[in-house]
Write a structure and sequence with these properties.
Number of helices: 16
Number of strands: 35
Length: about 700
């Protein structure tokens, strides 16, 4: 019996569904419009169409993996549950006070991100721990009952519990949870010690509040998804992609849905890393552009960069500090409001701007014919000839060129330009927006974009990668097979992963080594326990130790990888030297030098566990072919030619290893179109990756 896996990625415009056969490497893909009223409708519609088209029976499906941006959108749009907060007396306003840092020093009307929990739903109790976890004031059960009943009377559906210093001692939060469970067993509760057991009260309280805010929505959605998949005869144990780029059992994801915030973009980065290994390109800029946003991630040594901080629902997209701080492990990427649905408009200065407002899938770009009238990036690409109106999204839907031209002409009247000029202007502006963000993202990490290869995925990545690469100085582009559904494909090649953290405040030069090993061993056990339900299909588990360290006296920390454990007392001197050397090496890589004679402090300890799929994916190399004729020719606009050029159009499925051609040309795939300008030269490798070299 064939073994298939199905990956489902819900985006702002499209829901991508992919079926992969691990034994033969066969891949089937489909794009359907996201149904925002009930996203599971789009998922079920896509799965039914795909398995029917691929000839797959539900009994042949061994695994279903899912990623979604629904919960991020719920935070941004404030569509979560009515949430209450229980805090230590005197500290309930932390979520509103924040850290008192202005993200824009010169904006007199600056507005911070509104707290998820309004002041009237924040209550306080007298229980308190000190910074070492010693009890200062015990939990008063009667007091807890009173404040919980008050919150329930006010209509809350979910409660976040964040008590002072619970990272050092979880006892008080657990006692509060027990009281709530006794009173209201079905009420959703989040403990800060479960979701963010590390120091910094504002960030910890913000993370706990966000988890509580989306938890009822997540549990309802995931339960509905699981039930509807079971009705189709598919596996009930759905795997979820986490923001850290790893998979988790659905039951684990339901406990802390905050870990799902960046699951879709994370899957795209994992897909890029997978394709980088296939053609020995270890250092990549992974560029993923969908219908609503574009994402960029650094992949070095075939591994996406990881961050332990994240900001959701920013007031200003590029302004750090303008959003809600979330303490989760996540793929380190930058997100830009530039996608196929991004709307072009004339601003107050008479200039054309594109995004971040998006037409989404409802009503969508003007060319969809679903009620949208404003010009978008998709409309511009259609008028420029980059998109085939008869093969949009792999032929899944028809689009109307006349509506796109009409929308562009309306904007052209405002700008006193022809529709063609407006179309190219939109394409060029959105490419510059992405290039500007890429320059900043790469420079902030001490890297030069010219040292990397650009790997493009998503429905819009191949469309825009050529001109984005030119703007940032990249000379080589990789376009993998099925690039339009790369995030959904990434779900099926990702490892299982779990991350756990604990505040320690440990000085390697003086503190007792046995206590450090005890704390790390506890984290090792927690990670192993979280991955245990997936042991039959993922393994063996590889544990990696990290720490957030700093030189004593510094206010902020740097995360570095530590030597492998366990840390035996018999090797005490060597272990201490290894810990110091690991931090100093990471510090020098980041900042270029280290201060002399300053002791090191490890503030937070972290353990990451990864388990690769036990079933190896068999990928058959492509056969070589002498030549391939274009499937069609059509007029396509290129800046270098300053007009439309009769351009060859190739079909991706017809290309074989060794295919080579000089631009300008287009390659149409299911769900995406690769645009190669006049200075580009294309070769297809045996792995199916298209390699584009850009000449001077």
């Amino acid at each position: 019996m064939a073994k298939w896996a199905i990956g489902i990625d819900i985006g702002g415009t499209f829901t991508d569904v992919v079926a992969l056969n691990y034994q033969s490497g066969a891949l089937r893909t489909l794009k359907v419009l996201t149904t925002h009223g009930d996203p599971t409708d789009g998922v079920m519609n896509g799965i039914k169409q795909l398995i029917e088209h691929a000839g797959v029976t539900p009994a042949d499906v061994a695994r279903v993996v899912h990623a979604t941006t629904l919960f991020t959108n719920a935070l941004i749009e404030r569509r979560g549950a009515k949430t209450g907060l229980i805090a230590t007396a005197g500290f309930s306003d932390i979520v509103q006070i924040g850290n008192e840092r202005k993200y824009d020093l010169y904006d007199l009307g600056i507005e911070p991100a509104p707290a998820l929990v309004p002041r009237n739903l924040r209550v306080e109790i007298s229980a308190r721990m000190d910074a070492r976890g010693n009890e200062v004031a015990p939990v008063d059960a009667q007091e807890v009952r009173r404040v919980v009943e008050q919150l329930v009377a006010d209509g809350v559906d979910s409660i976040a519990v964040c008590l002072l210093h619970s990272y050092a001692n979880v006892a008080h939060e657990q006692q509060v949870q027990a009281v709530i469970a006794d009173l209201y067993p079905n009420l959703s509760v989040t403990l800060s010690s479960d979701v963010a057991p590390v120091i910094r009260e504002f960030e910890r309280m913000s993370t706990a509040s966000a988890n509580a805010y989306i938890k009822p929505l997540a549990m309802g959605y995931l339960d509905t998804l699981r039930r509807r998949l079971m009705e189709l005869g598919l596996p009930k144990d759905v795997l979820m992609m986490l923001s850290n780029g790893g998979l988790s059992h659905i039951a684990e994801a339901k406990k802390t849905p905050i870990d799902l915030l960046e699951s879709g973009p994370a899957a795209g980065a994992i897909s890029a890393a997978h394709h980088s290994v296939r053609d020995d390109h270890a250092n990549l800029l992974a560029f993923d552009m969908g219908g609503t946003t574009a994402k960029l991630c650094l992949v070095e040594k075939s591994r996406p960069a990881i961050s332990y901080t994240f900001e959701a629902a920013r007031q200003k997209r590029f302004a750090e500090g303008s959003g809600l701080p979330i303490r989760i492990t996540t793929i380190d990427l930058i997100e830009i409001g530039a996608g196929g649905g991004s709307i072009a408009y004339k601003d107050a200065l008479g200039l054309m701007k594109v995004g971040p407002q998006s037409a989404g899938s409802e009503p969508g770009p003007a060319c969809y014919g679903l009620g949208g009238i404003e010009p978008t990036v998709t409309d511009a690409n259609l008028v420029l000839g980059y998109l085939n109106p008869d093969y949009f999204a792999g032929g899944a839907m028809k689009i109307d060129v006349s509506r796109a031209k009409s929308a562009l002409a309306d904007l052209g009247e405002q700008l006193r330009c022809e529709a063609q000029e407006v179309a190219w202007g939109i394409h060029d502006v959105v490419a510059e927006n992405m290039a500007s963000a890429a320059r900043v993202h790469v420079a902030e990490r001490g890297r030069d974009p010219r040292d990397f290869v650009l790997l493009c995925t998503g429905g819009g990545g191949p469309l825009h990668s050529y001109y984005v690469a030119q703007k940032i100085g990249v000379r080589k582009i990789i376009c993998p097979p099925a690039a339009g559904v790369a995030s959904a494909y990434g779900l099926l090649v990702a490892p299982a992963r779990a991350d756990r953290a604990k505040t320690a405040s440990f000085r390697p030069s003086t503190d007792e080594l046995a206590s450090l090993e005890q704390m790390f061993s506890s984290l090792d056990a927690q990670v192993t326990e979280a991955l245990a339900p997936l042991d039959a299909t993922f393994g063996p588990i590889r544990l990696t130790r990290y720490a957030d360290g700093r030189f004593t006296g510094q206010g902020f920390t740097l995360t570095v990888a530590l030597p492998e454990g366990p840390y035996h007392p018999a090797d005490e001197a060597a272990v201490r030297r290894g810990l110091v050397a690991a931090f100093e090496a990471g510090y020098r890589e980041k900042f270029g030098r280290t201060p002399p004679n300053v002791p090191i402090e490890l503030v937070n300890l972290r353990v990451s566990g990864e388990a690769p799929p036990r079933e190896e994916l068999i990928e058959t190399p492509l056969e070589a072919a002498a030549s391939v004729e274009p499937r069609a020719w059509r007029p396509v606009y290129f800046r270098e030619i300053a007009g439309y050029h009769n351009t060859p159009i190739y079909e991706r499925a017809a290309l074989r290893a060794g295919f080579t051609a000089q631009g300008p040309l287009l390659v149409e795939d299911e769900g995406s179109t690769l645009v190669v300008g006049p200075r580009g030269h294309v070769t297809q490798s045996a792995t199916g990756n298209l390699i584009i070299e850009i000449g001077e």
